[in-house]
Amino acid sequence: MNILEVNKLNKAYPTFKLENISFSLEPGYIMGFIGSNGAGKTTTLKSIMNLTIKDSGTVRAFDVDFTQNERAVKQKIGFMMGETDYFPKHRLRQITDVVRRFYTDWNETAYRDCLRRFSLDENKKVDELSSGMRVKYNLTLALSHNAELLILDEPTSGLDPVARDDLLELFQELIEDGKRSILFSTHITSDLDKCADFITYIQNGRMVESCSKDDLIAKFRTVKGTAQQLETVRQQVISFRKNSFGFQALMETAKVPAGAGLTVEVPDLEDIMVYHEKRSVIA
Amino acid sequence: MKALMNKEFKLVANPLFFLVPLLSALILIPQWVFFVALLYFCFMGAPNLFILAKNYKEVYFSATQPVSRREIVRARMYTLITLEVLQLLVAAICVAVRLIWWRQANFFMDANLAFLGLSFVMFGLFNVIMAPMFYKTAYKIAIPVIVATVAATLFAGAVEVGVILVPFLAAFFDGIRTTWQHIVTLLGGIAIFVVLNIAAYRMSARRFETLDL
Fold first, then answer.
1. Which residue of chain B is at minimal alpha-carbon distance from A87?
2. What is the DSSP letter of A91?
3. Which of B12, B206, B212, B213 to mutate to test binding with chain A, by most A CBs within 10 Å of its CB?
4. What is the pTM of this model?
5. CB contact under 8 A, B210 and A51
6. Phi, psi of A14 (to 5 degrees)
7. Quick one: fold of A4-215?
8. pLDDT tens readout for residues B135-180
9. Helix B180-209 crosses helix B113-134 at what angle (to 10 degrees)?
10. Which of A257, B73, B85, B173 has its CA 20 to 30 A from that of B46?
11. How much is the ipTM here?
């Protein structure tokens, strides 16, 4: 069973469009949703949550159509938009008191446990919390209504490296029981190197890849060589960067020529993303 | 729906909103245009309700909860209507004071049951213009409030001028003795208020359902 299944999602704006975004996520995994700023990550997540009305395509969650079962499906989803801070001048206690009434499956014990664990003070106002604590408060609310799918838009973007690492560890922990999944967007690819099982990568509103992180990395190689060697592979590379020693480029693994004397290395997600973005700029 | 109403009154409509209806007590001024006492809701209550909700990013909060978009609009309409009815209830008490104990006529339209009925129509008119205009964007509130307030003020002004200049209207609506015309106006006003609010809700919900947030 897929906990989330997005199929050929399309949404057009006057100056931007999402085209045929498709991916799926099974229970017990973390999917990183990557792309540069303006690639359409937030639009995709908002379309999934029906905050933005999609032009076509389907979104299924927990094996039912999202739009037709919106109320029931949202009972099992925890959603957080990056910069959003609702009711900034209200105390956490006041907000929780409102939120808990929306959920049939609210677990007060789990809520209290999370407050203790994250050292959240219910008497603090939202705007007195740091970015990391706000993310943790949102997670607390999601975990307290037993959300099985967490959809988080750039949850790590405002955090320092220690808080980020802490949060990524928490993500790992949350999916350990195999019942819960996390879809989170980010442009900080090192976050995904640490914790993602699957990657969906979009560029200018279009899918580049959606597969396991290992498969994605296996699909590409960085190659290094001299300026003369660049001419022999220029047509095959995704994009390249010249330097004083020659060049460095990203290629599909299958296209790396054997015995050409090139230095071949395993790329990280940042390499894959940067070289793809570079190609799109050149194109 | 209960959860949404709980959100409306605990996080959006703070206790200060419940002081605005007290301005209906201005009906106890001896000689005045009594509609102004109710128009304070259009000047202060309604815009502040929507501005506060916008500042709190309430639409995004509600839209991510397990509720439908129609319910979000319905909850806001109920809040608006609740505050308007409170304003009218205070007005009704003041009208009763004038009709039963004070019994002093007003140069402009008298505070009577017909006045209350026409006030219901005025609020209905305000809602049916303001709400659907607002839910075109769910964040631009100034123009909808201005247009709706001008419409409500023009309606109130037309009634006042009509009662002074047109004998038939004066005979039908004016006076400090309760007549069947006043009762019919009150009941008709309530009916029109209900119909206009249903229309306001339906148009608003339809627009909000297709809106990109």
1. B56
2. B
3. B212
4. 0.88
5. no
6. -55, -35
7. Rossmann fold (3.40.50)
8. 999 999 999 999 999 999 999 999 999 999 999 999 999 998 889 9
9. 10
10. B173
11. 0.87
How many A/B residue pairs have CB atoms within 8 Å?
64
Q: How many CA atoms lie within 13 A of A129 on its CB side?
A: 29
B67/A102 Cβ within 8 A: yes
Tell if the CB–CB gap between B65 and A87 is shorter than 8 Å. no
Q: Is B100 helix (H, G, I), strand (E, B) or coil?
A: helix
Residues 6+ apart with CB under 8 A from B185: B113, B114, B117, B118, B172, B173
Q: How far apart are CA B139 and CA A220, in angstroms?
A: 45
Residues B144-158 as b/e (b if ≥16 CB within 10 A, e otherwise) read bbeebbebbbebbee
Chain B residue with CA closest to A46: the answer is B213
pLDDT at A83: 56
Q: What are the sequence ranges of the domains in chain A?
A: 4-215, 219-282
As separate numbers, helices (DSSP H) first and strands (DSSP E) second, chain B gives 9, 0
Residue from the list B60, B66, B211 with its beta carbon closest to the beta carbon of A102: B66
